Amino acid sequence: MWRGLYTAGAGMITETKRTDVIANNLANVNTTGFKRDEAINAEFRPMLLRRINDNKVDPMDVTSFKGFHLGLQAPVVGTLGLGSYIDEVAVDQSQGMMETTGNPLDLAIAGNGWFAVQTPQGVRYTRDGAFFRGANGQLQTVQGLAVLGANGQPIVLPANATQISVGAKGEVRADNQVIGQLQFVEFDADRRALLKQGNNLWYPQAGAQPRPATGEIQQGMLERSNANVVNEMVSLINNYRIYEAGSKAVTTQDSLLDKAANQVGKV
Question: Is 0.85 surpassed by the pTM of this model?
Answer without folding.
Answer: no
